Amino acid sequence: MSSNTPQQPTRDLRFFLTVPHACSYLEGREATTLFLDPQESPGQGVYDALALLGFRRSGRHLYRPHCEGCSACISVRIPVEEFSPNRTQRRLMRRNDDLSLHLRPAIYDPEHYALYADYIRTRHADGDMFPPSHEQYRTFLTLDQPYARLLEFRLAGRLIAVAAFDQLEHGLSAIYTFFDPAPDLERRSLGTYAVLCLVELSRRRELPHLYLGYWIRECRKMAYKQAFQPLERLEGRRWQRLIPS
């Protein structure tokens, strides 16, 4: 079964466009977002099909950029069986050998929220997710669906990171990772380590891909995604190898 085209038709789904708004990634640009009708539950079959077309999930919403005159946002994924960690990534994996990992459903947890709020205040005070709130967290990262999961990272029982992800028919989809911004944890590179753990989880579950969301060449915050090689990009309706810049 090929993973380059949707396996389930999207039937008579309705989609909407947002009004143009300031782009969160490229200064001075306007963005428009295409999203699935909010009345349509993001069930597994529809989600599987739309993910192959570059759609992402935020809470109950499935969306993708649809900006006139701009195609900077590129959907990327890691072909799991072809991926081999580089020397820096192998060293990082050894450095985090002392962490314990725990899978959880994507439900609200006060301990998770406290870590999330600290992360947003410390690392993203200049972004559109500041200030954090309980409602913002719930609508973004909690979902009562069996495919929505959270992966906890603990150091001697202390919660230091959480990675939200979804399990699709054709891979895992990394939704968002937040972590303890304490200076003594910086060398652990917890964001990168979370991706490496999701690659390994995909491999163990015999899933061919890990979806990393959007990559923008001009966006410094997204540059880390190019460290995972090989990487595939969505062009039209086909996934093709992304040549490193």
TrEMBL record:
Q: Where is the N-end rule aminoacyl transferase C-terminal domain?
A: 111-234
As for what it does, the entry says:
Functions in the N-end rule pathway of protein degradation where it conjugates Leu from its aminoacyl-tRNA to the N-termini of proteins containing an N-terminal aspartate or glutamate.
**Cellular-component GO terms for this entry:** cytoplasm
Q: What is its main location?
A: cytoplasm
GO annotation terms (biological process): ubiquitin-dependent protein catabolic process via the N-end rule pathway
Q: Which reaction does it catalyse?
A: N-terminal L-glutamyl-[protein] + L-leucyl-tRNA(Leu) = N-terminal L-leucyl-L-glutamyl-[protein] + tRNA(Leu) + H(+); N-terminal L-aspartyl-[protein] + L-leucyl-tRNA(Leu) = N-terminal L-leucyl-L-aspartyl-[protein] + tRNA(Leu) + H(+)
- Cited SUPFAM superfamilies: Acyl-CoA N-acyltransferases (Nat)
- Does the record's keyword annotation contain NADP? no
Q: In which domain of life is the source organism classified?
A: Bacteria
The coding gene here is bpt
* EC supergroup of this enzyme: transferase
Pfam families, alphabetized? ATE_C, ATE_N
**Could you tell me which residue ranges the N-end aminoacyl transferase N-terminal domain spans?**
21-91
Q: What is this protein called?
A: Aspartate/glutamate leucyltransferase
One GO MF annotation is: arginyl-tRNA--protein transferase activity
Localization terms from the record:
Cytoplasm
Keywords per UniProt: Acyltransferase, Cytoplasm, Transferase
Q: Which family does it belong to?
A: Belongs to the R-transferase family. Bpt subfamily.
EC numbers for this chain: 2.3.2.29
